[in-house]
Amino acid sequence: MSDESPTNVLFVVMDTVRKDHLTPYGYERPTTPGLESFAEESMVFEQAVAPAPWTLPVHASMFTGMYPSRHGADQETPYLDNATTLAETLSAAGYDTACYSSNAWITPYTHLTDGFDDQNNFFEVMPGDLLSGPLAKAWKTLNDNERLRAVADKLVSLGNTAHEYLADGEGADSKTPAVIDQTMEFIEKSDRSFAFINLMDAHLPYHPPKEYREKFAPGVDSTEVCQNSKEYNSGARDITDSEWEDIRGLYDAEIAHIDDQLTRLFDWLKETDRWDDTMVVVCADHGELHGEHDLYGHEFCLYDPLINVPLMVKHPELGTGRRDDQVELVDLYHTVLDALNVEGGKPASPGEDVVARDETRSLLSASYREFADADSPDPGQKGSPDGDYAFVEYSRPIVELKQLEEKAKAGGVTLPEDSRFYSRMRAVRRPDVKYVRIDRIPNEAYRLDEDPGELTNLAGKGDEKIEAAEQALARFEEAAGGAWTGADDVEVTDDALDDMDDTTQERLRDLGYME
C-alpha cells in the first residue's frame, strides 16, 4: 500500500439487507440516499457473495478468512473456537479495536468479539454482561455435550421468542443511534482504529421509527402483519399479496433508518477531518426473502437474494466506480490486513488456527484471485480453475428448525423430513451459473445469466457450465472433508436440564429460563 493509505478502518455490516432494496443498486424507492452519495466515493461491487446465508458463520468467516467448514461456527457448534480473529491480529499490531452491535450472535459467548478492546451488544433479551464470564463458559459447556446441546437449542429458541415479544413496537433500530454514538466516541479517542459495527434494523421483526414508516409504509400497523417467518414457512399461515407489500414497505423503512444513521456517522467523520484517513467497508452479511420461492426470511435455501449481497468499499487503491467481477466476503479479512499492512498468521494463543494475509485474496491487490498455490489449507481458495467461483455453506439450521416445528405443530401441519427444512446445503457460484448440493431433496442448478430469478432447475440437464460448476463444488467438498450426505435429528427435552452444573443453572435462572 502507498504512504497515503488510510490508517483507520470502519467496517459496517447492515444485517439482513438485500442488495436490490438499495438505491445504489437501482432500487426505485429512495431508501438510501446517503449510501447513494457514498457509492460515488467508493467502489461498488455487483457480485459479492456471502459464505453462508446467516449471521454467525458469515461473521466468523469475515473475522478469520476461513470458510464455514473450516472455522466450524454454525448452529450445531454456535461459537467460534480455536481460531485467531482479525481483531486479535490487529490488536496485537497496535490498533485500537471495537465492536458495537445489537445482534445476539456477535457476543462474547460466541467468541466473535474476541480481540476487540471494547465491545457492546445492545441486544435487549441477553444483556452483554450476562454473555461473558460464567455464562459464556456455560454456553460452551452446553454445546460441547451432545445431550446438553439440545438444551442450548431450546434456550436460543426461547430467547428468540422473547425477542419477538419484547421487540414489539421497538425494534433493533432503536439501538442503532446508540451504536453510532458509541462508535464516534471510540474513534474520537483513537489514533489507529478498527471499528466494527452491525446494524440490525432490517432483521425481523420490522418496527421502524414513525417518520420512516410514514414515508415507506403509510398506514401500515407493524403489529398486524406477519412478523414471524416460521409461521409462513411451516404452512401455518398464509400471506396475501397486499400483506407482502406492507412487509416490504416496513423493511424499506428499516433500511432508510440505517441509511440516515450511517450518513450521520459519515458526516461526522468528514467534519472532524477523519474521512480521508479511514477505509470504509459497507456490506450486508446476508439478504432476506419476502415470498420468493415460497419462503420468508433467510433460512432453508441458498438463493441469490440471500447470498449475492451489497458491498461498497472506500479506499484510494480501489478508486471509484463499479466492478462486475465476483468477490467473496471472506476476502474482506485479507483486504483489511492488506489495507493496514499487517501480515497476520500468528496465533493469538498456542495451537489456534490462523490465516496469514494473502494478497491474491485482497480486493486492493492488482493480483486479486490470481491464485498460484494449489495447496492452500482453505478449500476452493487456490488453484485453477476454481478461482472464478465462490463457495457457500449452510449447515443444518437447528434453531430455525425447532421454531419451524413448533409453529407447524401449533397450526396442525406435518413437516416432511425429506424437505429443504431438514437439509444441509453447499453451493458454488459464478455470476452466470450456480450449483447447489442438497442432502435430502434434489440438487438445484441455475443459469443466472439467463434465469436470474432461479426459477428453472437445470441440475442433471447436461448444461456444460452447470456441469463444470458441479465439478468445482465436488473439489471444494473433497478438500473440506467430503460432501454432506445426511443430517441427524436432535430432540429437545427438558430432562437434560438435570445434567447441568450449579453455575449453569444459576445463570439460566438469571435469564429467566429456569425457576
CATH architecture of the largest domain: 3-Layer(aba) Sandwich
Shape: globular
Q: What fraction of the residues are assigned to beta strands by DSSP?
A: 5-15%
Order of helices and strands: EHEHHHEEHHHEHHHEEEHEEHEHEEEHH
Count of separate DSSP helical elements: 15
Our count of domains comes out at: 2
CATH class of the largest domain: Alpha Beta
| Rg measurement, Å | 22 Å
Please state the average pLDDT score.
86
Instruction: Name the helicity range.
Output: 25-40%
How are the strands ordered across the major sheet? Answer: 4-3-5-1-6-9-2-10
Query: What are the low-pLDDT stretches, counting only 5+ consecutive residues below 50?
Result: 124-135, 157-169, 490-501, 503-515
InterPro entries: Alkaline_phosphatase_core_sf, GAG_Ulvan_Degrading_Sulfatases, Sulfatase_N
Region (Disordered): 370-389, 484-515
Biased composition (Basic and acidic residues): 504-515
Domain Sulfatase N-terminal: 8-342
Molecular structure report:
It is a single chain. By secondary structure, this protein is α/β, with parallel strands linked by helices. The chain folds into two domains: 464 residues, Alkaline Phosphatase, subunit A (3-Layer(aba) Sandwich), CATH 3.40.720; 35 residues, no CATH class. It has 15 helices and 14 strands. It has an eight-stranded mixed sheet with strand order 4-3-5-1-6-9-2-10, with helices on both faces. It has a four-stranded antiparallel sheet with strand order 11-12-13-14. The protein is globular, with a radius of gyration of 22 Å. It starts with 7 loop residues before the first strand and ends in a 5-residue tail after the last helix. The C terminus is likely disordered.
